[in-house]
Amino acid sequence: MNKTIIILTLALSVFFSASADYEIFYQVEPPVETNVLSFVPEQKPESIPPVREVPGPYQELFISVSNEYDIPMEVLTAIAQVESHFRSWAASPVRKDGTRDEGMFQHNSRYHNYFVKTFNYGREYDPYNPWEAIHVTARMVNFYFDRYGHWTDVFLAYNGGAGRVDNNDIRDDSWEYLRRIYSK
What we know:
Layout: E1 4-8, H1 12-15, E2 24-28, H2 59-69, H3 73-84, E3 101-102, E4 107-108, H4 112-119, H5 130-148, H6 151-160, H7 162-166, H8 172-182
Antiparallel strand pairs: 1-2, 3-4
Helix pairs in contact: 2-5, 3-8, 4-5, 5-6, 6-8
């Protein structure tokens, strides 16, 4: 299996806070295999983000869902922290296409029907209700982890879409999102 691995060490002031040194690995697979561009903190490809404090009303919810779906709690809390700072009422401005990101996990309204069908067994859910949206998010995270096997690719797919990960077409804002996921 021919792989090209390029290791780049970037200055802390460019991508990361001064709290830790990271190396960024770009791994490009041969075209016949899954083309996944992986951003991996130095620890391991399976490394999870740092621990974040969950606001009191949501602690039991995050613990319960983390256990139910066998997802490290750090993964779910990183998404909620970066997407909305745990604010269930968060909403992005309406875009030109009429869509917006909604709720604690910032589910995009354009994909609401897809999320209902694919990640919620065809049942409607309210993206502003964290008790409903976290289950949709957890199923989505498991779907991406089963597909990619790397937490970093899960986060990139969650933010920018699986198609971009599959085609090595990661936008700059997704790299910034990933940096924020792995920063404390």
